[in-house]
Design brief:
Elements lengths: L1 E3 L5 E8 L2 E4 L1 E3 L4 E4 L10 E11 L8 E10 L22 H17 L21 E3 L3 E5 L2 E6 L2 E3 L6 E3 L4 E9 L3 E7 L4 E8 L1 E2 L6 E2 L4 E4 L11 E7 L2 E3 L1 H6 L4
Antiparallel strand pairs: 1-5, 2-3, 2-6, 4-5, 6-7, 8-11, 9-10, 11-19, 12-18, 13-14, 13-17, 14-15, 15-19, 16-18, 19-20
Length: about 260
Amino acid sequence: MFQVKPPAPLGSLNGTWLGHDLSFSFDPASKTWFTLAGVSLETVPGTYAIELTGETVSGRMQGTKIFFNRKLTVTRGKYPRLPGKLSVESKFTEPSPEQQKEIEEGQQIKKDYLNRVTPEREWSGSFTAPADAEISDVFDAERVFNGKTQSTHLGLDFRVPTGTPVAAMNDGTVLLARPLYFEGNFVVLDHGQGLLTLYLHLSDFKVKEGDQVKRGQIVGLSGGTGRATGPHLHVAVRWQGTYLDPQGLLRLRLP
């Protein structure tokens, strides 16, 4: 979370960070402006500038644009590597031509939807876990399916049996609620300003696309659909096209 206390009252505050546009909201309680942002796994460790632009709303300088730069250090992330190999149906590692077509259709759907950035912030307050359960797999773990390294685990797994209620992590709008090849029954919530939460492998949907939901509202039931080794809940977080560690978002105390 970026939090800014300007030297004069502002009517708006915007910025840029690592090539992403930032839109800040004002918190009257702390008299600060705030926004959420992230860093991709591919970002090279180093020093990067956040650039801010605001417009004053009172005093002799009313209507004046003010600018501010701050250099921030990005260090290398440290993520645990969990041992173990996974077994799934062969259709997930050696798909037939028909299955490959279904995979490509799913990839196009994700390309069309998961990079969307809606301007208005819908989330409010801290994000909460979608289920009260033990974490069974973490962000950035290497995934080896049927002896082949297939992907990096870009989410967080909760150890839950089929039929466990899955709660929205914050307020938002249902962007997707449909089955996809790898994800199984798949729900995506748009929390605004490019922040999405994704809920995979569900056994049942409790929302439909376009629904507005509140934090804690049930969006589906956990399951083992799609490329899953068994019943569990996989949750992911995307911000403006970049996957982020869900545990990092859950740790933040937000206005």
